[in-house]
UniProtKB/TrEMBL annotation:
It holds the Pfam family TetR_N. PANTHER family: HTH-TYPE TRANSCRIPTIONAL REGULATOR BETI, HTH-TYPE TRANSCRIPTIONAL REGULATOR RUTR. One of its GO terms (molecular function) is transcription cis-regulatory region binding. Residues 7-54 form the HTH tetR-type domain. Keywords: DNA-binding, Transcription, Transcription regulation. This is Transcriptional regulator, TetR family.
């Protein structure tokens, strides 16, 4: 493994354990076994660029896998089913979480916390691609079921649950080394239920108007 890859893995692990603000570039270099404590700064410049590089190192595989799953549900004509779309969102993260040495899901949870618990700031780090396609499909389905404001809020809540739930899956997969299909199914059930539950208050407002 080259120096850059060692630094990325060390950064991902330390950020996951101690938070984004709890780790310095010097600590990352030391954890990667580098005698030169400025190695992380040399290779990445600053912490935001290092975070972006972690995304780049992981997202290509995750994005490709999600695209494959999306193609599969389109071929099976179930791409209008919220549960299957939620599985397409969650499964690539869960599979990544089961890879040996992965701290990516927990790193993402820490970054989400650092970003103020909002998904809107994550795309600047590279969280785009197939995930955005699935979110747009879910948004279209929800728009036919509930007011737009409610749909947007549901998607935001689902994003939070996806991040924290996948971090939990990664924690459990650290020893097993495989995807816990039962927990993944529970997470997918929860995501689909959150998104599609009746908007009762909105219904009352509409009936009273």
């Amino acid at each position: 493994m080259d120096t850059r890859s060692e630094l990325l893995l060390a950064a991902e692990r330390l950020f996951a354990r101690h938070g984004i603000d709890g780790v310095s570039l010097r600590q990352i270099a030391a954890a990667a076994g580098q005698r030169n404590v400025a190695a992380a700064h040399y290779h990445f410049g600053d912490k935001p660029k290092l975070i972006g590089a972690i995304f780049t190192s992981r997202l290509a595989h995750i994005d490709q896998r999600r695209t494959e799953l999306l193609d599969e549900i389109r071929a099976d004509r179930v791409d209008d089913d919220p549960w299957h779309l939620c599985d397409v969102l969650a499964r690539p993260f869960a599979e990544q979480a089961a890879r040996p040495g992965s701290h990516y899901a927990r790193f993402l949870a820490r970054l989400y916390e650092h970003a103020g618990h909002t998904l809107e700031t994550l795309p600047e780090y590279g969280l785009t691609g197939s995930a955005q396609q699935v979110i747009e499909l879910l948004g279209e389905l929800l728009a036919a079921r509930m007011p737009e404001q409610v749909a947007r809020y549901r998607v935001e809540l689902a994003g939070r649950l996806l991040i924290t739930g996948t971090a939990d899956l990664e924690q459990h997969a650290e020893q097993a080394g495989v995807v816990d299909e039962q927990r993944l199914s529970w997470l997918t059930d929860a995501l689909a239920g959150l998104l599609t539950a009746p908007a009762r208050h909105a219904d009352r407002e509409q009936s009273g108007s």
